[in-house]
Amino acid sequence: MIGNVSHLAVDKGHECLLKAGLVVLMRKPHVKLLIVGEGPLNNDLRALSRRLGIADNVVFAGKRADVPDLLSCMDIFAFPTLTESFGLCLIEAMASGRPVIATDDGSAPELIINDREGILIPPGDEKALAQAILRLMDDPELAKRLARAGLERSNAFTVETMTRRLESLYEAVVSL
Hints:
Elements: E1 2-5, H1 14-27, E2 33-36, H2 42-51, E3 58-62, H3 67-73, E4 76-79, H4 88-95, E5 100-103, H5 108-111, E6 119-121, H6 126-138, H7 140-154, H8 159-174
Helix pairs in contact: 1-6, 4-7, 6-7
């Protein structure tokens, strides 16, 4: 199960994910794509999955309150966003112990060192996304290593950690 959680909008890269899914399905026909979220591209993305001939392998789950449960069902979290200021769902996926593939843009390079906590791909590159997905599927040890490192990295972004950092910043400013 390859999953994504985000608003269904142009800048989130779902078209790239579906096109990559077609390539993956040629080698791994049992794969399912789970797309969680809703938005203005809902109907367009469903139509694209039908045009690509992969609709039977794509689950559009809509907006869900049980995202942590859905993350736990995913084998790989794909986040091919074209622009992102801060990918909260990316951190949530890392915190759930999923190996992640993300776009080398926005906040992702600050969260992930390529091939250490996840895999970074160029924005809009469905071939690179497909290759990264297949790489993780073909190398379960790599997937486990990246998932463990991503989980560890996500600890730097817990509420407690961020609160301590903010308190330290306030204390430093006040002591000036």
